[in-house]
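just leaving the lab so this will be short. what follows is a protein written twice so to speak, once as letters and once as structure tokens for the fold. can you read through it and tell me how you think this chain folds. anything you notice is useful, everything is just below:
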Amino acid sequence: MKRTTLYCLITLLGWALPGPVNAAAAEQAKPNIILCLTDDQGFGDTGYNGHPELNTPELDQMAAAGIRFDRFYSAHPMCSPTRASCLTGRSPTRYVCMTWGHDLPLREVTIAEAVRLAGYTTGHFGKWHLGGIEHAAGGTGRGLPESFDPKPRHPGNQGFDEWFSAGNNYAIGYESLYHNGEQVPPRPGDTSDVLMAVALEWIGKQAAAKKPFLAVIWFPSPHAPHVATPEDAAPYAKFGKAKANYYGVLTGVDRAMGRLRMELRSMKIADNTMLWFCSDNGAASPGSTGGLPGGKKFLTEGGTRVPGILEWPARIPKPFVTAVPACTMDFYPTTLELLGVKAPDQIEPLDGLNLLPLIDGKMAKRPQPIPLVDGGKTRIIDNEFTLQNGRLFRFTDGGRKDVDVTDQEPEALKRLTEWEKEFRASVKKNQAAYNFKAAKKPAVKK
């Protein structure tokens, strides 16, 4: 990465540290950050969201201990674009990451690169699906050819010091896992258990060294082929084989999240750790959207509204539930504000926003809309209203459907229509840098 200038105000959970501090104290003041993401877990695929058959006691406890987001959105109804949005804070359409298997270009600044400026160590664990790793179903270099970037787009070239990752989703016994670029043999056991064991080994080392860290833990479950261990599937056998395996792999995810929370407490770093949990898109069969319309692949509530939880005991001492819309693009700007970091190579604009005011109970409404884009389709989420295909809707949770209010709300229609027009013009400017047919390639940040 090009030589950068660090603008970092050392903060302790949002309040300035009193008096002079030494370097070690400053490092301890920085919250650890963990971003956990599941693959194809629907909004209804948790006990706390009312699933009638699936038990998720650990996620239920986590939701009861922190902030439960009842309107948390993935940036796209499919996996790769959403994953890119988690890392960049920008709509994936800006850098032509348009569908599954599309890569994240090296030119974009990632959250891993940003936190390094503040002295963090970084690790990625699990499914990647953003290019640069061999044996990824659907290949690598989709969206933009590999020749567009001088180096592979794997986690090691996107700001991660440590990575134990796969190119795409995987099940028990999968053989194409890579540790810092070297292929490693499969490990026995449920994929979520294996993944969490690797991540916790690394987290433990950072905690022992008192180094602030960013850990990105991306589960391959519950994406198909839904291969649960016999022990995890057995309690659900009465629901049939398909559901038993689906519920079984989610049981593995739930158990892994419970182990993570327990180990963070054991390491005495839980209080000062910002722990996120969400999914990359809505449910695929036999998953549950919780009655929301649509599902994976569809730009609807069911395709983009997903479970969302934030646990951070030191900053969120009193748990609460919020209906303020939030999304995967918010991770990055929230982290920038938290650490006081400005990346000099940052490509503007960011589409997410800083959620610290919401976390502190000072945000009653989202101050800017959420743009969800799938190809030529756009869905604009703005608190009470949603704009899609030129029509204005008010989503009713009770009826679980969009109610057309285009003719009843002319001012809101005009405001969001103008906002979408400006957004599309901005996207067009960003996409111009990714015209890989042009004679001169854009500068790469590394």
